[in-house]
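Summary of Year 1 activities. Much of the first year was spent building the evaluation harness for sequence design. The harness presents a backbone, in tokenized form, and records the residue chosen at every position. We chose the following record to illustrate the format because it has been used consistently in internal testing since the harness was completed.
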């Protein structure tokens, strides 16, 4: 489905995020050994090409030292790939080494910077130039290359010790890059590629979880990696899990052999199973917590620590454990467990802090705001959802402005590819569009929810977000305010995440046996389950905006007349009134100063009362919070509705209690507006 399509149907193809990640090229095919195709032979060697064409740190120096064509050069396809592999291997070895000399401590800082350049600049540039239509060399070829290079340099690889451990973590990191490129190059990797990718992530996370066991074959030592790489590991891990669930959930167009293989994988209860994915994420989170507690205990025993030793401390476990919290909450959100997802997000120590770790990584920051907001959205807490959506949308807008400013200022042409700033921003922009669509739904859905009505939600947004919302979704919001449920379903189909078909959904579909009916789509079932919850809420709330607009015009109105205006029966009107009362009562809102958990909330009525109890500007704020709030009562005869306007009542109360205080009095404009409302009400009474 096209990203801009908001049609009211579910796209059963690979999800939008999956097909648009990476460079979007799907026409390439790979050789069995992972090398270049014959068509790429023209770019397969680099003997006559400019070494400075690609951003490879130290490449020129390494080229000048090569006087003859070594045996290791025959293993990998070209000089740039060989230099990248060799340079990354050396820098990871230097960073993770347990050496404690002062000289090496300085070199470690340089290695950290160069690893960042290799990841963020060299890898995407080489991938774009040489591997558009082929995969990177497989791990076995890289191992062979490193062995030959070590032989040429006269070094020996011991069975244990730093060299073996360095190779282990390097190969785990290389495999992560290799399979990420596989997924970015083609929209649908083969089953075996998906299986091997799972095993590669298991090896990588096992290395990290063995952190501290530096001797032998485990741990990451003092390795320091860029935060953006560590976030991308978790993000890609969740993405590939989601991709596997989508692949497994659609049986149409699959051969019998593929279906049998998927059955085997399901029975093994290991490869890309939700429980195993969550287990790894929880293990990283718990290991991080254990390490923090251990370091705190050590700090009490040892007050002073040399600066050099602080440099040697790895960031891999701490940062991966932090991002694993986001990943775990994301999986729970994709599974439809929204309350558990919010509880998991509580573990982030600085969720709403401007200087938090996730706020420094654009992809992570947007993911946090989208998934927290969506969890609130599905729990019918629309104002809380709007706060997080607004924060994510504003962040993406700032990033786009900075990118345009850099490109217009001579910082280079348009950047492309999944790892380039332009490629990343494009993915974030699509997520921003989804958040904007959810906001467009949430505003009419919040109508009738007491003081958090649509006006209150709208006022909580930035000016730019409000402007874009009216421009792009004004027509659809008008339809939703008129109670057209199809408009809600259209936007929800576009804006919701692609839910995963868990084993519970598979068991509850058809006969309960996987692939018993190949015509079934488990992806559809996962989507329909969440859609049904959403549509049920929509059907309850759809009449409320129109009902509320009529009630605002009257202080007293008969049930018969209001039913006629609403074009419903009297019984249906009474049911709608009951729904409005239910949705308006006990409305809660998250406030950081009062709530310990994201699931907690303070009743809005109490917040307004607290605001009204203050003086000066606080009282004015309370007026506007209460402006949309009103109550109604059905008289004993069941034929007349009386409407009580909280705003007018507050005016009268304040005039009685503080007639001499200009700060506590309502604004002049509000008084005029209220007067016109009552005048219109009297006029309607006369026209009966």
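For this record, the design step produced the sequence shown next.
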């Amino acid at each position: 489905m096209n990203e801009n399509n908001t049609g009211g149907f579910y796209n059963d193809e690979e999800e939008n995020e999956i097909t648009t990640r990476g460079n979007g090229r799907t026409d390439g095919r790979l050789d069995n050994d992972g090398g270049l195709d014959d068509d790429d032979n023209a770019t397969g060697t680099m003997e006559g090409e400019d070494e400075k064409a690609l951003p490879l740190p130290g490449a020129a120096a390494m080229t000048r030292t090569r006087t003859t064509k070594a045996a290791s050069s025959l293993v990998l396809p070209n000089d740039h790939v060989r230099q990248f592999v060799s340079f990354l291997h050396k820098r990871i070895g230097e960073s993770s080494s347990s050496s404690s000399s002062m000289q090496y401590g300085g070199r470690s800082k340089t290695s950290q910077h160069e690893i960042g350049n290799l990841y963020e600049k060299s890898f995407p540039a080489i991938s774009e130039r040489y591997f558009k239509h082929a995969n990177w060399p497989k791990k076995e070829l890289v191992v062979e290359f490193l062995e030959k290079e070590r032989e040429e340099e006269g070094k020996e690889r011991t069975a244990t010790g730093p060299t073996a451990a360095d190779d282990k973590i390097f190969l785990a990191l290389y495999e992560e890059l290799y399979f990420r490129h596989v997924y970015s190059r083609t929209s649908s990797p083969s089953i075996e590629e998906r299986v091997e990718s799972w095993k590669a992530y298991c090896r990588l996370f096992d290395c990290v979880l063995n952190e501290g066991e530096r001797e032998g074959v485990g741990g990451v030592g003092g390795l320091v990696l860029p935060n953006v790489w560590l976030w991308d590991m978790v993000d890609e891990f969740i993405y590939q899990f989601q991709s596997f669930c989508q692949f497994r959930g659609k049986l149409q167009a699959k051969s019998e052999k593929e279906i049998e293989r998927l059955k085997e994988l399901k029975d093994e209860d290991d490869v890309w199973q939700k429980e195993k994915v969550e287990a790894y994420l929880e293990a990283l989170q718990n290991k991080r917590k254990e390490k923090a507690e251990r370091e705190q205990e050590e700090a009490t025993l040892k007050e002073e620590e040399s600066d050099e030793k602080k440099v040697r401390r790895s960031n891999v476990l701490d940062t991966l454990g932090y991002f694993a919290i986001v990943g775990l909450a994301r999986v729970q959100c994709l599974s439809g467990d929204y309350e558990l997802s919010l509880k998991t997000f509580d573990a982030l120590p600085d969720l709403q802090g401007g200087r938090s770790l996730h706020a420094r990584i654009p992809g992570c920051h947007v993911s946090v705001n989208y998934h927290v907001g969506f969890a609130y959205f599905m729990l019918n807490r629309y104002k809380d959802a709007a706060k997080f959506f607004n924060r994510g949308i504003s962040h993406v807008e700032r990033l786009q402005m900075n990118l345009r400013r850099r490109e217009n200022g001579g910082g280079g042409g348009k950047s492309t590819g999944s790892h380039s700033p332009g490629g990343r921003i494009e993915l974030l922009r699509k997520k921003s569009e989804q958040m904007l669509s959810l906001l467009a739904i949430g505003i009419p859905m919040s109508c009738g929810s007491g003081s958090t009505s649509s006006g209150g939600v709208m006022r909580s947004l930035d000016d730019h977000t409000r402007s874009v919302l009216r421009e792009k979704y004004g027509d659809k919001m008008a339809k939703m305010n008129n109670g057209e449920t199809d408009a809600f379903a259209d936007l929800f189909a576009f804006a919701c995440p692609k839910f995963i078909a868990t084993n519970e959904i598979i068991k509850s579909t058809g006969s309960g046996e996987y692939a018993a009916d190949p015509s079934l789509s488990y992806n559809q079932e996962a989507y329909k389950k969440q859609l049904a919850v959403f549509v049920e809420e929509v059907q309850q709330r759809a009449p409320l905006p129109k009902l509320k607009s009529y009630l605002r015009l009257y202080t007293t109105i008969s049930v018969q007349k209001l039913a006629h205006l609403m074009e419903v029966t009297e019984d249906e009107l009474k049911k709608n009134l009951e729904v409005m009362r239910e949705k308006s009562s006990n409305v809660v809102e998250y406030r950081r100063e009062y709530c310990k958990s994201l699931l907690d909330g303070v009743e809005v009525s109490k917040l307004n009362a607290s605001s009204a109890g203050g003086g000066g500007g606080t009282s004015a704020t309370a007026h506007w919070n209460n402006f949309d709030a009103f109550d109604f009562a059905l008289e004993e005869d069941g034929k007349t509705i009386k409407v009580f306007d909280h705003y007018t009542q507050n005016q009268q109360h304040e005039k009685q209690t503080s007639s001499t205080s200009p700060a506590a009095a309502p604004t002049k404009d509000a008084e005029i507006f209220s007067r016109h409302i009552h005048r219109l009400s009297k006029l309607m009474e006369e026209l009966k």
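The two ends are 52 Å apart (CA to CA). Quantitative recovery figures across the full test set are reported in Table 2.
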